[in-house]
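Dear Dr. K.,

Following up on our conversation at the group meeting, I've run the structure prediction for Acyl-coenzyme A thioesterase PaaI-like protein from Jezberella montanilacus. I'm pasting the input sequence below exactly as I used it, so you can double-check it against your construct before we proceed with anything downstream. Let me know if the numbering doesn't match what you have in your notebook.
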Amino acid sequence: MFDQALYQHPIMTQVRHAIVLNRNPGYHFIGNFVGQVFENVHLTKSLLKLPSGPHLLDKQGDTHIAAFAIVTDMGLATGIRSGLEPSTRLATVSLSLQMTSAPMLGELAVASVSEGFVHGAAGREGMSATKVHANGELVCFGSGSFMILPPPPGVELHPIPWVKQVPPVVSELDPGSMSESEVGIVTLAERALNKSLHEGGDFLTHFLGLYPEAIKGAAHCVVTNGPHVGNRVGHVQGGITLTHAMVTANAALGDGWLMTAVHASYISPGQGDTITADSKVIHHGRMTAVVRTKLMSSNGRQVLDVVSNHVRRA
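The predicted structure tokens came back this morning:
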């Protein structure tokens, strides 16, 4: 079942470990895979840390944008959830990040704080703010809002297990015990790792299928949905959809530009067989640019509406 040529590679070891951890209810594969640590969680604030590792690096050796987006989204939600019943479902409503473009080298630290709830709303929409540092240097600050929702029909939610307890550091996966979805994750991971080793590029880009196609002033990127990117209720995790938008927006402008801010409105869950991002440059100046990105699911519903700001590289 396992590709023996890749079995001992540390990335495949991490994939198998994440599958074992994911058998504890309350979390999801991609969160267990990136391996963020819930270091300090209080009633109104939280500190998440993301240790560096080969499974998280992009081709330049920085923390991959997907790992950054996943842990930032989780940090903002944890800043709110820490004051609620631990199994509470929070759906991302909006997320805004201002980025310094400092290198994301080494461990990331995501410090978030709850800013309370929207007054006068029919539902409970919580707000939080965050700062992200890499090796002590500020790489991002931002805010997010999250709506408290009941679980989907037939879904029982559990608390995220690793908030109150430290997950095991190592584990062993019995191939004979694997479910169909777990086999699919391992197969996808082996293909992604094999591609990165023989064709170049980084593991996460291949694993998530982040291959934007750029045309003049625009870009297009289709990503396949599946359990490797799902959240606790089976929808595409919010950090993954944000990554999809950011990567496509960057492709619309090309390597000569840096993204400095992103503002995302979450419209509907990431469902369907595929999610498609379409980016269009709506301003292209000498020093700054603005890109509009829409994410659509294959079931015809819009998932995200995103506006990003960019500056020309020095």
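Two things stood out to me. The longest helix spans residues 180-199. The mean pLDDT is 95.

Best regards,
J.T.
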